[in-house]
Specification:
By secondary structure, the protein is of the alpha/beta class. Helix content is 40%, strand content 18%. Helix 2 packs across helix 15, helix 8 packs antiparallel against helix 9 and helix 15 packs across helix 16.
């Protein structure tokens, strides 16, 4: 069959993907032969709020190569695709869209806002799915799921109700991470800590002096504290001292607590339980009064007198100026460096607030999650992440799962205005279970999106009664980035064990975060972001996939840059040109004809069989980066540069037996090399494979993986 002089992926990739999709072989139920062994992956659902980025391209490349490999190995393979409504993150993206249009979500009622975000999300979801196809994802689109599908919503609420009935969920008035910009509480994992230089103010509190970076919260002080073993302040412990403040004189008790760092400042700290997590813990221990002085918008409240209504920054400046005027500041350290908590999306400083929120008691749930990993029922690639996993579970805190946003799954809790208690139910109850009152309203909060996505493996498979759940759960591999080990992986293990009594997956494969050639993290602000779809348009999906796989050792951050992608585009061209040469010399060749190989051909076959054995072992051990590199070097430097070159003259031989030997060895090695390259470079290999004699339009993706016994 004639091949074009030049490989042009732009002309062929869409056509090939349509060929695959129409074949029906993405669906495990349609795969040929008896397939008793199962290999399944649930796709980490990309956020349906924008285009795919280079990180998505990494997971698609890795998961697709696993699926294609095990499909060729004769496994019943399922790769189930999905999309995440992505709660808070999508609302942030939608906020920016509204801002450009001169609108605000606060101008819209709940129903209208939800409807608009849903429309926006479903539009982006379609775009995202087209982009997954562009990357070559051979997932079963007939089973595609969305985290807001009615069955997912219903079963997510069922889990909440089960946790509540088992005493593992409570509504508590606790200190939470509050983002004034987005007007919602965030979990501990959604908070970033950045280094910042701020003035450290040494303020006089009666006979004592203490250091603080937040003088504006002093209106909420309810005690002073020192370390119990700090000899400097023993005479003050348990005493009440008179303190001059900007609102007049007050009295504060001096307490002793081991949470106080005697080396910070003067060793004396002010305790403001409403606005600091550590102060809150100390306040609980010592039964201190809680005085909130900063509201949900980051402004000082009425109880701060003349400072009411000021935003935190301007309030700080005015408070400092007034303290100086009253001679209440001893000194200021202008170069104090410390870490502050900020919102992971907008970078706004977190304002801790005491609020009623829904929490999951995590400690009782972690024992089994630790046990299954210790017993190797779940293995980690690389294994070093086990230690990090165990450390996090050991120090886990209760999980705040309620968010003060519109976009997401509503919490199935109904508040009775009469008795101020909640009744837990998916549908609105006829009356309150506590006081029989009928004045019930649903909690306006929604679940943290990680709560629903932590149930993704079993919910996506139709837990508890579907055939897919029975056939494919636990799944084989969970492949994702190492940075969401705590956000997602650990929580999937915890909730999977709690709900299904089974592990959710057998292997956790963690890839790194993509960096540029200077090892810098990719970000729009640095201008070093690579658009995977733009790169595909230029160089083809296979070149991008190879660039993302070779050098991508699990757990390490891979380096990607345009020159690297260009290099694998050149490799694709090399494969094309070598294949074209072989095909040009197969016009009179019948693949079924028996050909007796000579010593030289036998030697080449022996070397190639060793390659098959090596690559197969690497693939079985999840060392995909080495398998790809091994194939790259063999095809380019051994097959194309040596075997093909030495057979050029033999193909011209007047002896038909010699010509047949050369045709046979070149055909055999090319065909089996294409099979091994297929999981890495699916488009190119399919395009060439369909031109080989004897293929009869059978997709290469359902061909059998080569065995090291070629003759």
């Amino acid at each position: 069959m004639i091949m074009e002089p030049k490989y042009q992926p732009q002309k062929t990739e869409d056509k090939i993907y349509n060929f695959w999709e129409k074949s029906g072989f993405f669906n495990p139920d349609n795969l040929p032969g008896k397939r008793k062994k199962v290999f399944s992956i649930i796709m980490p659902p990309p956020n349906a709020n924008g285009s795919l980025h280079i990180g998505h391209a990494v997971f698609v490349s890795l998961q697709d190569l696993m699926i294609r490999y095990y499909r060729m190995k004769g496994f019943k393979t399922l790769w189930l695709p999905g999309a995440d409504h992505a709660g808070f993150e999508t609302q942030v993206v939608f906020d920016k869209k509204l801002e450009k249009e001169g609108k605000s979500r606060f101008q819209m009622n709940r129903k209208e806002l939800y409807k608009e975000i849903l429309k926006f999300t479903l539009t982006n979801k379609k775009i995202m799915e087209k982009q997954l196809r562009k990357l070559g994802a051979s997932c079963d689109w007939s089973r595609e799921k969305f985290t807001l599908d009615p069955d997912i919503v219903s079963k997510t609420q069922d889990t909440f109700i089960k946790l509540y009935e088992d005493g593992l969920i409570y509504r508590g008035k606790r200190i939470v991470n509050w983002c004034p910009q987005h007007q919602t509480a965030l979990s501990d994992l959604e908070v970033k800590y950045i280094e910042k230089k701020d003035p450290l103010y040494y303020i006089k509190y009666g006979p004592l002096v203490l250091a603080t970076v937040r003088p504006e919260t002093k209106f909420g002080d309810t005690a002073l504290a020192v370390h119990p073993q700090d000899k400097r302040y023993q005479k003050y412990i348990g005493k009440t001292i008179e303190v001059e403040t900007l609102l007049g004189k007050t009295q504060l008790k001096v307490i002793a607590d081991s949470l106080v760092d005697p080396k910070f400042g003067t060793g004396v700290v002010k305790i403001t339980p409403a606005h600091d997590p550590i102060d809150f813990e100390i306040g609980l221990k010592h039964n201190l009064e809680i005085k909130e002085v900063i509201d949900q918008f980051g402004r000082l409240k009425e109880n701060t007198g003349p400072y009411a209504g000021l935003k935190v920054k301007e309030a700080r400046e005015k408070v400092v100026a007034d303290l100086k005027a009253k001679n209440l500041i001893q000194k200021i350290d202008e170069n104090y460096t410390h870490k502050i908590a900020v919102c992971y999306k907008c970078g706004s400083p977190i304002e801790p607030r005491i609020m009623a929120q829904w929490f999951i008691k995590m400690k009782p749930l972690t024992e089994k999650a630790v046990k299954v990993v210790k017993e190797n029922k779940i293995s980690f690639i690389p294994e070093r992440f086990k230690k990090i996993y165990f450390h996090w579970l050991k120090n886990i805190k209760d999980w705040n799962i309620s968010r003060q946003i519109v976009w997401g799954i509503r919490i199935p809790a109904w508040f009775c205005k009469n008795c101020e208690k909640f009744t837990i139910a998916k549908e609105k109850p006829a009356f309150c279970k506590y006081c029989q009152g009928k004045n019930l309203i649903q909690d306006p909060d929604v679940f943290d999106t990680w709560f629903s996505s932590s149930q993704w493996p079993f919910l996506a498979l139709g837990f508890p009664k579907s055939k897919d759940y029975k056939n494919f759960y636990p799944t084989t591999v969970m492949e994702t980035a190492w940075d969401i080990l705590f956000f997602w992986v650990a929580r999937m293990i915890i909730l999977g064990l709690y709900v299904t009594k089974k592990i959710p997956f057998k292997i956790v494969y963690l890839h790194g975060l993509v960096r540029d050639k200077d090892r810098q993290k990719m970000s729009k602000s640095k201008g070093n972001v690579i658009d995977p779809l733009g790169v595909i348009d230029l160089y083809g999906a296979d070149a991008l996939r190879m660039a993302l796989i070779i050098g991508n050792k699990p757990g390490n951050d891979p380096i990607i840059h345009e020159e690297k992608i260009k290099g694998y585009r050149n490799f694709a061209n090399k494969i094309w040109n070598a294949s074209r040469f072989v095909l040009m010399n197969l016009n009179d060749f019948n693949p079924r004809e028996k050909v007796k190989m000579g010593p030289e051909e036998q030697k080449d076959l022996k070397q190639f069989n060793a390659l098959i054995k090596k690559v197969t072992k690497l693939m079985d051990n999840f060392r995909f980066y080495l398998a790809a590199e091994t194939l790259y070097h063999y095809f380019w430097h051994t097959f194309a540069d040596k075997i093909l070159e030495k057979n050029k003259e033999k193909l011209k031989s007047s002896k038909i037996s010699q010509r047949r030997k050369s045709q046979k060895i070149l055909f055999l090695i090319l065909k089996e090399s294409l099979k091994m390259l297929h999981p890495f470079m699916p488009f190119l290999t399919e395009e060439i494979y369909q031109k080989l004699p004897g293929t009869k339009l059978k997709p290469i993706m359902i061909e059998k993986w080569p065995k090291p016994n070629l003759k």
